[in-house]
Amino acid sequence: MLKLAVYGKGGIGKSTTTANLSAAFSLLGKRVIQIGCDPKADSTINLLGGEPLLPVMNYIREHEKEPESIEEIAGVGFGNVLCIETGGPTPGLGCAGRGIITTFRLLEDLELLETYQPDVVLYDVLGDVVCGGFAAPIREGYAEKVLIVTSGEKMALYAAGNITEAVRNFEDREYATVAGVILNRRNVAQEEEKVRAFCENQGIPLLADIPRSEEIIHYEELGKTVVEGDAELPISKLYLDLAKRLWDDSQE
Question: Against a cut of 0.70, is the pTM above it?
Answer without folding.
Answer: yes
